[in-house]
Design a protein that fits this description.
By secondary structure, the protein is of the alpha+beta class. The protein has a 5-stranded mixed β-sheet with strand order 4-6-9-8-7, sandwiched between helices. A 3-stranded antiparallel β-sheet has the order 10-11-12. Strands 1-2 form a two-stranded antiparallel ribbon. Bound molecules: 2',3'-dideoxycytidine 5'-triphosphate and magnesium ion. 2',3'-dideoxycytidine 5'-triphosphate binds next to α13, α16 and α17. One of its GO terms (molecular function) is DNA-directed DNA polymerase activity.
Length: 438
């Protein structure tokens, strides 16, 4: 603990590190308020120091089983409301502000029992989020949250955005054409102009399957099967089960498998494509799409892309809808070419009795040198990533992504062998994956 204090306090005194002065860590939105010593007794935990808590948001830890779930749930609902139903850039910023506020509450190491304990918390601010959090502490209830929770438009947007491949802009179009439920979408799918996008057809066809939580045991079983295939192809491959499961969740919406293998050719999906092909031969693949993931978006220098060569700026991604056998055994299943199915055929197939259910799996390919960065990025969570990336930019003018850490002043990539090396580069204490549930 004392380590990070030393590190964080450096930023405020502008000491020279690596040849230049570190700028202040201040993030615009909300200014932390130093509360006077005599009020410190408001906290049930005598060791809690608000100033320390506010000094460096990226140093905070958030475990899944944190102590302020009711407040965080309310703030997360408002985040979701504004991220799905946004009309303007201001609404999108509002969603991000609620995401930061919810994360702050998840990081508090005590249960809030008195609204005074919420005062001065960086990222909870002194406005809307604080007001809602205060209502929850005082009465366990927020009128605004309940109204938004039951808002008909929001409920439809939630349903639509749970269709694989659909985001807020498509949800908005569907809502505008009078659709309200998943059934509506299925019935009128042929009239919708997105029906050419086969990803969404599969999302609609397998809506129920893909929205049933994937349990940890099922994810582990699938992960083992996929890893065994990869090791048969390339015995030296390194794999990890990332995403929410690595952060300690017991269920999730998909399985994220990260692979690390030596340098690859430009856009060559190599090993992960070979793994997908093996799964396909066994009749296990319903749908798949190869793409690239997570270059350092928005991290250009003077609007020219970051230098680094072909494989530096992106990871390889294969999104799959996989058959999960109902008996948990990955034996050969009847292979069938779904790509020739029109929507109706696909929908009929999805409705028919079958010995499997559809699950979502992402295969992510990284090079050996990208791996520690890909590990952090694909562990998440999303808000933790945002926080780390913002911190890297504000404190060091570094660009952090799932492919690497780029020093924009010295024009060089910072190499890392392990996740700990990445935290060291950022002068942060190491955080275990289960402490990254912002
Ligand atoms: N990620 C991110 N930004 C996004 C989406 C994802 O940084 N816009 C990162 C964080 C987690 C990781 O990629 C995997 O993404 P998801 O599977 O969407 O998230 P998850 O935390 O694994 O959630 P779930 O348990 O529901 O799969
Ligand atoms: Mg996931």
């Amino acid at each position: 603990e004392s380590q990070w204090l030393v590190e964080c306090s450096k930023f405020h005194s502008l000491v020279p590190v690596a040849g230049y002065l570190l700028p202040s860590l201040s993030v615009p939105e909300s200014t932390p308020v130093n509360i006077p010593q005599e009020e410190a007794s408001v906290y049930p935990d005598p060791d809690f120091d608000l100033n320390k808590f506010n000094e460096c948001v990226a140093e905070r830890r958030a475990v899944l089983d944190h102590q302020n779930k009711d407040i965080a749930e309310a703030l997360d609902l408002l985040r979701e409301y504004w991220s799905l139903c946004h009309q303007t850039v201001t609404d999108e910023r509002r969603a991000l502000a609620f995401a930061r506020a919810a994360a702050a509450v998840k990081c508090l190491p005590f249960k809030v029992t008195n609204p005074r304990q919420l005062k001065g918390i960086k990222d909870l601010g002194d406005g809307h989020a604080l007001r809602v959090a205060t209502q929850i502490v005082e009465s366990g209830h927020s009128q605004e949250v309940e109204e938004k929770r039951n808002d008909k438009k929001f409920l439809s947007f939630q349903i639509f955005c749970k269709v694989f491949g659909v985001g807020p802009s498509i949800a908005k179009k569907w809502y505008a054409t009078g659709l309200r439920t998943a059934e509506d979408v299925k019935k009128r799918f042929d009239q919708l102009d997105v029906s050419k996008d086969n990803m969404i057809s599969y999302g609609v066809a397998f809506y129920e399957d893909l929205n049933r939580p994937l349990l940890l045991a099922e994810a582990e079983n699938t992960y083992k099967h996929i890893t065994a295939i990869a090791q048969r192809i390339l015995p030296s491959v390194v794999t990890s089960m990332n995403g929410g499961f690595r952060r300690g969740k017991s269920s999730g919406h998909d399985l994220d498998v990260l692979f690390s293998y030596p340098e690859r050719e430009h856009n060559d999906h190599g090993l992960i494509a070979a793994v997908r092909d093996e799964l396909d031969k066994k009749g296990l693949v319903v749908w798949s799409r190869s793409s690239r993931a997570d270059g350092p978006k928005g991290a250009e220098i003077d609007s020219s892309p970051l230098p680094g060569g072909s494989a530096k700026d992106h990871l390889l991604l294969i999104m799959i809808i996989l058959k999960y056998p109902l008996d948990d055994r990955f034996d050969q299943l009847e292979r069938r070419d779904f790509s020739t199915e029109k929507n109706l055929g696909l929908f009929q197939l999805a409705d028919s009795a079958r010995p499997w259910r559809a699950i979502r799996v992402d295969l992510v390919g990284s090079t050996t040198e990208q791996y520690p960065y890909a590990q952090i990025g694909w562990t998440g969570n999303k808000q933790y990533n945002r926080c780390l990336r913002q911190y890297a930019k504000d404190a060091f003018n570094y660009s952090l992504s799932s492919t690497g850490l780029y020093d924009k002043r010295q024009h060089r990539w910072l190499p890392a062998q392990t996740e700990r090396d990445v935290f060291d580069h950022l002068k942060l204490s190491y955080r275990e994956p289960w402490e990254r549930n912002f």
